[in-house]
Amino acid sequence: MKRIGLLTSGGDAPGMNAAIRAVVRSGIYFGMEVYGIERGYAGLIEDKLIPMEMRSVSNIVQFGGTKLRTARCMEMLTEEGQKKAVATLEKHGIEGLVVIGGDGSFRGARVLSEQYGVPTIGIPGTIDNDLEYTDYTLGFDTAVNTCLDTINKLRDTMTSHERVSVVEVMGRHCGDIALYSGIASGAEIIVVPEVAVNMEEIVSSINRSRANGKHSNIIVIAEGVMSAEQFAKQLQSLTTYSVRPTCIGHVQRGGSPMMADRMLAAQFGNKAVRLLNDGIGNRAVGIKDNKIIDMDIIEAVSMKKVFNYELYETLKMISM
Ligand code: ATP
């Protein structure tokens, strides 16, 4: 393969820039020409391509966001949009494509490979960690660390005032950010879309912890369940302890990627290009049991995310 394209799509995630760098540098290493496509599938449809050189990706490994910018593109859902996207690739003689994004972006990649025969490699770039085929997605670790920083600060003030803090983190369908940031911050309770809310049990757990000498409580809630504000209102009507909501919000998407995400970015990006260089397409790269893997992209997007109930139970046993 002599010429490949690269785009970032869907929600951005820390580590996308590091992955762009790894794809561009690996491509050049193998003697390929690499074209960056701006604003995801929108840029592909609108022919917004930029040649990427060795130095185009200098000094970006440490930054959040994506140098190529990203977009959600409704036109890519239509046959007309998809044909325009393929026409752009043909016009520039691009033989393979790397797509960095979440499950929606992978569905776009699946269409390109399955229906139009474009060899495409998916790199899982999303803070949500909502793809079953990989243990971790790019950006998840940094997003959780951002949550931890905020929760640590909330614990200080909540303890001083003996309050209950309800902290809303991202995750519409997947509770992993809440689960990991809850466990790692020592939160007492997590509320996730995968487990039905039991307000009675939550109130009992708060009362138990206070009887055991605790001066504050942290409840981490995933946005997909309800907002921190709504939850705090409900809880306040059931307890005499003072409840305060906090929504961490979009800061979770930004910031300098942590070591774990930079390492994933380097390895995912390099693996994607090595696959294309071997003439292999239609794969999604990931990490399983600490090993970089690749699997059929259609199979990867079809797998249903399984919630880690064992970790959820662990939190209950150690945070009381
Ligand atoms: P995140 O997990 O951060 O939300 P994502 O990649 O899942 O990221 P989406 O908005 O779901 O984000 O998808 C990104 C883009 O992928 C869409 O705007 C659209 O252009 C394309 N896409 C999504 N689903 C399909 C599909 N079924 N067919 C073709 N293209 C799709």
Structure overview:
- With 320 residues, the protein is of the alpha/beta class.
- The chain folds into two domains: 3-139 and 257-302, Rossmann fold (3-Layer(aba) Sandwich), CATH 3.40.50.450; 140-253, 3-Layer(aba) Sandwich (Rossmann fold), CATH 3.40.50.
- It contains eleven helices and eleven strands.
- The protein has helices at residues 16-29, 40-45, 79-91, 103-116, 140-161, 176-185, 199-211, 228-236, 259-277, 297-302, 309-318; strands spanning 3-8, 33-37, 49-52, 96-101, 120-124, 164-169, 189-191, 217-222, 243-247, 283-288, 291-296.
- The strands form two sheets. A seven-stranded mixed sheet has the order 3-2-1-4-5-10-11, with helices on both faces. A four-stranded parallel sheet has the order 7-8-6-9, sandwiched between helices.
- Strand 1, helix 1 (16-29) and strand 2 (33-37) form a beta-alpha-beta unit.
- The radius of gyration is 21 Å and the shape is elongated.
- 50% of the residues are buried.
- The mean pLDDT is 97.
- It binds adenosine-5'-triphosphate (ATP).
Keywords for this entry:
320 residues; alpha/beta; Rossmann fold; 2 domains; 7-stranded mixed beta sheet; 4-stranded parallel beta sheet; 11 strands; 42% helix; binds adenosine-5'-triphosphate
Compute the gyration radius: what is it?
21 Å
Bound small molecules, by name, code or SMILES, are: adenosine-5'-triphosphate
Order of helices and strands: EHEHEHEHEHEHEHEHEHEEHH
Q: Return the CATH architecture of the largest domain.
A: 3-Layer(aba) Sandwich
CATH class of the largest domain: Alpha Beta
Low-confidence stretches: none
Overall form: elongated
Q: What would you call the structural class?
A: alpha/beta
Q: What's the number of domains? A: 2
Helix content: 40-55%
Which sheet architecture does the biggest sheet show? Answer: 7 strands, mixed
The order of strands across the largest sheet is: 3-2-1-4-5-10-11
> Care to count the β-strands?
11
The helix count comes to 11
Let me know the average pLDDT. Answer: 97
Do you know the CATH topology of the largest domain?
Answer: Rossmann fold
Fraction in beta strands: 15-25%
Instruction: For the record, give the distance between the C-alpha atoms at the N and C termini, rounded to a whole number.
Output: 56 Å
